[in-house]
Predict the 3D structure of the following.
Amino acid sequence: MKRTYFGTDGVRGPYGGPVINLDFAGRLGEAAGLWARRQHPTGGRVLIGRDTRASGEPLLAAVAAGLVAAGLEPVTLGVVPTPAVAQLVRQSGAILGVVITASHNPATDNGIKFFTAGGIKLTDEEEAAIEQLLPVLPPKPVGPVAFIDAEEAYVELARALLPERALEGWRIVLDTANGATCVTSRRVLRSLGAEVWGIGDAPNGDNINDGVGSEHPERMAALVRASSARLGIAHDGDGDRCVLCDETGVVLDGDEILTLLAVHALNRGVLARHTLVVTVQSNLGVDAAVRAAGGHVVRTFVGDRYVGESMRATGAMLGGESSGHVIHAEVSPSGDGLVAALKVINVMLETGQPLSALRRLLVKFPQVGTALRVREKTDLAQCRNLNTAIAALEAGLGSRGRVLVRYSGTEPKLRFLVEGPDEPTVTAGLAALTAAARQDLDVQD
């Protein structure tokens, strides 16, 4: 079944727009509740978390009203990271989890995403089934929703990943994107003994991701250099991803994080199935590094939920995306930026090496990418000039590189990635693709 509203990670869009509004949020909450009742006829509890956007509270109330209309019991967790919702759903036996967030998008956007009873993101088929159950009219508002404090349980789980006071003497720069991790990540790092220098830790409802966070790591990197910190950690707005920077201020992306974690685990014989799961977006250098260490890489569609599906199918316990989603299945069923950072810190502690040395495990193939904002997501099969350009570039690259052209699942953008043997080749290839796309599509500059 084709999905109309769900994208790569839930339903997302401008708040007050045609999709993310209070009426639709109520209808979607009711549809999700009706779908959950099919698996759990006697009903049950649904846990709802949100990030710091001003639109989060009214959207949460609307979703809760829909869940009540479906005969379920909504419980709010307040402002918490997305992985905290997933973990508590799994631990508590709740039949559904909901997060009101637009992740790394600006504060004017918001979104709604769901977890099943095991804290696992919905499949495409499950999302399509929910859309089929959307009622015509929104539900009636309900009174205050019951509250559970999820912060403490999440902090305790994360803190237990490292030995007590393991970070004594460490200075860490932490950028929490004015989002859902402002309290939890700082608490965990300080409880382990670290001195934390904070950025993006004063949310006001309108400043989430505004020049800070994993999409804007420049300030973090500059402060790491200025403060002589051991490393920097930057989350996105809902805390399910992170990027790092080493002690010299050089930023590491998700590919570098995943590679050093996988190779370290392979060297110790503890990488489950000797397998790392990544998406088609990841650099080919990841495959080379993991293969050299005795492992292999499995690739999926873009989206951490597809990574999770592949991990469960293959028995892998480590996977993620170049954007900074990292899933450690033995800890959490979903991507968790804080857990990823702590796992990297653990490698630093065990090896005694700084992050600037560990990051060298990945030697990247030259890669360039960009995105064009489009008025309409025209079927790419109909884009004659673009398809001709793709075929010509792929023929020229052969086995020395690859081409990826896809629509964003969360924004009206066409994304391009070209990887190859040298910078001039990939730069020229990207220019040819974008020029062809402009001939076929209505591009909004």
About this structure: The chain has four domains: 11-150, 163-248, 253-361, 367-440. The mean pLDDT is 96. Residues 367-440 form a domain with the TATA-Binding Protein fold (CATH 3.30.310.50).
